[in-house]
Amino acid sequence: MSQILLIGLLLLGGGIAAAQEDVPDEPPEEKPSWTARTGARAAFVADAGLAALRITPSATGDLKQRLRVGRRVYVLGQRRIVDGRTYVFVAVTRRTRGWLDQRAVVRANARGDDTRLLALARVETAGYERLRLCRLFETLFRSSPQLPTALLLLGETADAEAEAMQRRAVRRVQQRVVAGNADEASYFDNDPGLDRYNRLGVKFRYDSAKKRYRYDGAAYRRLARQYPQTPEADKARQWLSNQ
After folding, report:
1. Are residues 223 and 145 in the same domain?
2. Which of 98, 113, 169, 171 suits a disulfide with 106, CB 3.0-4.6 Å?
3. What distance in Å separates the CA atoms of residue 211 and residue 148, rounded to the nearest whole number?
4. Residue 54: pLDDT band by 50, 70, 90 thresholds?
5. What pTM does this model have?
6. What are the CA-CA distances from residue 130 to residues 8, 44, 106, 117, 120 (Å)?
7. pLDDT exceeds 80 at position 190
8. Is residue 45 part of a domain?
9. Residue 146 sits in which domain range?
């Protein structure tokens, strides 16, 4: 009798344990994100001429660092107007904070910032920096009616940069080809001068027949595919047909 009772207790205990195992654990309490806790809003540096991060909100404030175009910062809400200029308090990293001229940055949901960014891209004279601005526009303002204009500017700038890169790469390639380790086209396709463009998402290939770099045409193809009725798309199709 005692053996039967013992077996029954063991079976009952096993059933309770199994039932307890079937009960899911309480989900861990989710902590609010850093941006939710601080109310920080993401912004991106668009004007390198104003991107001086300062300890105090003033044109003469001590400089912490100069921020590059495309750098993400977080606007923390504080604003100061000094000498008619608006400064915002931003976080560059969790430990690096400072004051920045508000006009140095753009935000995806800020009215008019697409127009400001496109204007900055148009007047930029350095090809690579203009490409950075165009790519920033393409990333932030996907619904902007000015996106076709930015894409055309991107394509035209990349096309012009292909010629400039060719001139810069020729001497390096000629020096390496002499060693006989690889052919000329391989050296051109792997030239270090392409690296920063590649990281930007702007791609080039070396045309062995014509002895020059060619832009891969990604911006033109997007124009022709997504905005076929625009004047910019007409120019894009013309470029694509000539390749």
Report:
1. yes
2. 113
3. 31
4. very high
5. 0.81
6. 80, 15, 15, 10, 8
7. yes
8. yes
9. 113-241
Burial code of 140-168, b = ≥16 C-beta within 10 A, e = fewer?
Answer: bbeebeebbbbbbbbbbbbbebbeebbee
pLDDT of residue 13: 54
Residue 2, in any domain of the structure: no
Residues 86 and 22: their CA atoms lie apart, in Å, by 59
Say yes or no: 178 and 132 in one domain. yes
CB 46 within 8 A of CB 116: yes
The reported pLDDT for the residue numbered 205 is: 93
The Cα–Cα gap between 93 and 172 comes to 38
As a three-state string, the secondary structure of 9-54 is HHHHHHHHHHHHHHCCCCCCCCCCCHHHHHCCEEEEECCHHHCEEE
Domain boundary pick from 87, 106, 125: 106
In this prediction, residue 40 carries a pLDDT of 82
Q: Could you tell me the sign of the dihedral formed by the alpha carbons of 186, 189, 194, 200, in that order?
A: negative
- Give me the pLDDT at residue 189, please: 93
Query: Are 184 and 178 spatial neighbours (Cβ–Cβ below 8 Å)?
Result: no
Predicted confidence (pLDDT) at residue 192 exceeds the cutoff of 70: yes
